[in-house]
Design a protein that fits this description.
alpha/beta; RNA-binding
RNA sequence: GCGGGUGUGGCGGAAUUGGCAGACGCACUAGCCUUAGGAGCUAGCGCUUACGCGUGCAGGUUCAAGUCCUGUCACCCGCACCA
């Protein structure tokens, strides 16, 4: 037989698949379906990273197996192509972003095709295509109509390098998640999406989906629901202050109050505050701090006491001082708290620093003068009038009833989640389809005007004054009001990159529809996505945003499933050979093109699946790839030893069935590494016999096909098997045949191995023990001792306990 | 600080969930083959000269512990003054 010429074979089959549209999903909605999805890439100038194929190969394997099992499979691919790197590259090199995008996509596509993924290329989508972003804009209009998109002047995160606002989700450790530059706060008018309205649904929906736990936990923490009480405190100057607390039971222990420096009441009270200068100075310092500084300085408490105004604790009418301090955040709760230093660590720190009284109201801990007692489970209420003697739980209920009755408190649920800042001051994004009219305010474009196409211009540099580059394009900006016809201006901010990716999986269902984002029939059939694999870094960004949009689309009847993804898994990163993250600057980047050239796509696929636990990070190893190549070489040369026998030989039948079982189950469990190990083991067993039968070879290469599709398809053809491998059926195993007739068991004396025996698999417990005791080694060990216990674990071991 | 996770040979990693620790692969060693080897084949490969000892460390439960319990250490990831 000829040599294993992977380059030639891989090209050959890729061309055949292309030509025959082998992997195009069928529009026959009566078939059982499987919708597998991986995150579509951002087509960067660097080309494909070896990390991309880890995820793509895994779901490709699942998809290929599902096809052999008879499913109508949709495994699509597309391009998340709007975004800053393209725009920056375009500016630097004076090439239009659309050309840069086109080139990058061509390169990515070539690389993906070279890896033999079974994507349905007829459904390719591109977020920068007007026929696609027409529907992104349409969704925005629907959000606007339902009051979920609004423009608001607010303090936003501003990246000093990108010259652009960022969503809270995009700020990591106080710096920009994309470029690592400092993020400062800036007052700006921005389009916002009310994701907070969906906090409850986003949380509750997690109970009904099959996401790996760390994804659920991370989303739950990010949404951050807490149940508590909102309480109204009076003041000595008439106004009331609302506070939120989860520990209403400790109300009698409130010895002061803290307001956030940004609290609106401070402005109202300007003429009543005795030390206004001091307060203003503190407000200014707080405002100047970047997010990074603010977290850095988090340990040390600072603050200013307001002179001339005191708060009144509603439970006992005690007058208590009010402070402002930046440890209270304007963005959470009501922006003001009651401080109970005896039972809250932060309040305790502050009280110590400012020498404020600490009153114990929950007994059961250490001395509250020495440290705060925060345990809710064991304490008993003291110094709290009608709450005395109650447990924390009971006291919470009682005080809530009391407050509600008096009309000064109510049960409240709070979330950490904040609304989504949706404007970006950049060129390369979807235009927001809104017009500003002096008379009518913001007016949405009529749906018939969509898509609102991005103007094609020469200059799209960001401006230093924080305005979008589109603002300079007056021809485009100046328009008429859709409502009254008067001269008006278009919104010049664009949407964030997360917009296009928040619904792309819906478009794959019906990608060429120009009447709606996808037809109901297509959505009903394909959704929800059966399996979505992607990176953990998207858990609180893309994954949360797209769930929000999907739930909204569900509520307005545009989609038919309440959740977009039935199942979510996540892959670990592929690290450089030195165990560090791959990056140009570290010089440890592996180029997939080189691997394909030197070892072939099949080897690359097998290697990436064999590299380790799919969910964990794994370092690349140039020498380990050879193992995968050797494995495929051996599979190839096995063809020479094939006999015409159409049977599985009895002596290896059990291992065969076990391997079918293992590979079948491991693919479903994403344990690709052990599936491949099982195939290697079986190959070793077969090789040792010096030949392989036709029936055995058929099964073997079918099992290997999802992992190494080109070589197996070629071998199928060379061996003259019927049709094409991708049209055959996935092998079935027989549970009864998975067990060998004879098994080796070990004999332990007091838990130590003393002998090994070959016994029939169905031997009785008594017979096994008898047989064990008949062994010479065993006889020596138990001779003259008392047998205390004898155990037989079927097919495993005999243990004899002696004294 | 809170939440999640991980510690197993020289390396990547297995272990049917309490039942032979180290599957499978890499690297390595020896031999064969070869003009040659970054090729192939065969054998070996946790530690220890041994008795034995071994899954981060210390205890415990059990006939039996990588797996369960208690304590402890280290590292990774996420959130971080969220009231």
């Amino acid at each position: 037989m000829q040599d294993y010429n992977y380059s030639k074979i891989e090209k050959k089959w890729q061309d055949i698949w292309d030509e025959k549209q082998t992997f195009a999903a069928k529009n026959d909605y009566t078939l059982p379906k499987f919708y597998g999805l991986v995150e579509f890439p951002y087509p960067s100038g660097q080309g494909l990273h070896v990390g991309h194929p880890r995820s793509y190969t895994a779901i490709d394997i699942v998809s290929r197996k599902k096809r052999l099992e008879g499913y109508n499979v949709l495994y699509p691919m597309g391009w998340d192509a709007f975004g800053l790197p393209t725009e920056n590259f375009a500016i630097k090199n004076h090439i239009h972003p659309s050309i840069v995008t086109e080139n990058n996509i061509a390169n990515f596509k070539r690389q993906l095709k070279a890896l033999g993924f079974s994507f349905d290329w007829s459904r390719e989508v591109n977020t920068t295509d007007p026929s696609y972003y027409k529907w992104t804009q349409w969704i925005f209009l629907q959000l606007y109509k339902k009051g979920l998109a609004y423009k608001s002047k607010m303090n936003v995160n501003w990246c000093t390098s990108c010259k652009c606002v960022l969503a809270n989700e995009e700020v990591v450790n106080g710096v920009c998640e994309r470029c690592g530059s400092e993020v400062v706060h800036k007052e700006k008018s921005q389009w916002m999406l009310k994701i907070t309205d969906y906090a409850e649904k986003l949380l509750d929906g997690l109970d009904n989906v099959d996401f790996i736990d760390r994804v659920k936990t991370q989303q739950r923490n990010w949404i951050g629901r807490s149940y508590g009480t909102q309480v109204t405190f009076g003041t000595t100057i008439g106004d009331n202050i609302e506070i939120f607390t989860t520990r209403a039971d400790t109300l009698f222990g409130a010895t002061y109050m803290v307001m956030s420096p940004e609290h609106p009441l401070l402005e109202k009270w300007a003429d009543k505050i005795g030390n206004l200068d001091e307060v203003k100075a503190y407000q200014e310092t707080a405002a100047k701090k970047s997010d990074f500084e603010r977290t850095e300085l988090a340990k040390d408490k600072t603050g200013v006491k307001l002179e001339g105004v005191l708060a009144i604790n509603p439970v006992n009418n005690t007058e208590i001082p009010i402070f402002i301090s930046d440890y209270v955040l304007i963005s959470y709760g009501t922006g003001a708290i009651m401080a109970v230093p005896a039972h809250d660590t932060r309040d305790w720190d502050f009280a110590k620093k400012f020498n404020l009284p600490i009153i114990e109201v929950v007994a059961g801990g250490e001395d509250v003068q020495k440290q705060a007692f925060t345990d809710c489970a064991t304490g008993v209420l003291v110094n709290s009038d009608f709450l005395n003697g109650l447990s924390v739980e009971d006291a919470k209920v009682k005080i809530q009833e009391w407050l509600t009755e008096k009309g000064i408190g109510s049960v409240k649920t709070n979330y950490k989640l904040r609304d989504w800042v949706f404007s970006r001051q950049r060129y390369w994004g979807e235009p927001i389809p809104m017009v500003y009219c002096e008379k009518c305010g913001y007016v949405p474009l009529d749906e018939s005007e969509l898509p609102l196409v991005l103007p094609n211009v020469d200059s799209y540099e960001p401006t230093d004054n924080g305005e979008s580059p589109l603002a300079k394009m007056t021809d485009w900006v100046n328009t008429t009001c859709p409502h009254c016809g008067a001269p008006a201006k278009r919104e010049t901010d664009t949407m964030p990159q997360w917009a296009g990716s928040s619904w792309y999986f819906l478009r794959y269902c019906d990608p060429h529809n120009d009447k709606e984002l996808a037809s109901k029939e297509a959505l009903e059939y394909w959704c929800p996505i059966d399996w979505y694999n992607g990176g953990m870094e998207h858990t609180t960004l893309h994954l949360l945003y797209s769930r929000f949009w999907h739930k909204f689309l569900y509520d307005i009847g545009a989609v038919t499933s309440p959740e977009p993804y039935a199942k979510r898994t996540s892959h670990g990163m592929i690290l450089g050979e030195n165990g560090e993250k791959m990056s140009k600057s570290r010089g440890n980047v592996v180029n997939p093109d080189e691997i394909i050239e030197n070892y072939g796509a099949d080897t690359m696929r097998v290697y990436e699946m064999f590299i380790g636990d799919f969910e964990k990070a794994a370092p690349w190893s140039q020498s380990s790839i050879k193992g995968s190549k050797r494995f495929l070489d051996k599979v190839w040369s096995l063809a020479d030893t094939m006999t015409d026998e159409d049977i599985i030989r009895p002596e290896i039948e059990a291992e065969f069935h076990r391997t079918i079982k293992k590979v079948t189950e491991d693919i479903e469990g994403l344990k690709m590494n052990t599936a491949i190990a099982a195939l290697m083991s079986l190959l070793n067993t077969i090789s040792a016999t010096g030949k392989i039968t036709k029936a055995e070879y058929k099964i073997f290469i079918t099992l290997l096909n999802p992992f190494a599709p080109h070589i197996t398809e070629e071998l199928w053809e060379i061996c003259g098997f019927d049709g094409m491998l991708n049209e055959t059926a996935w092998p079935k195993f027989d549970e009864a045949k998975c067990v060998d007739k004879n098994v080796e068991i070990v004999v332990q004396i007091n838990g130590k191995i003393r002998a090994r025996l070959n016994v029939p698999a169905d031997i009785s417990s008594a017979d096994a023990i008898l047989l064990a005791k008949d062994n010479d080694n065993v006889k020596n060990e138990i001779d003259g001792k008392n047998i205390i216990k004898e155990l037989y674990v079927p097919k495993k071991l005999v243990n004899i306990v002696v004294k």
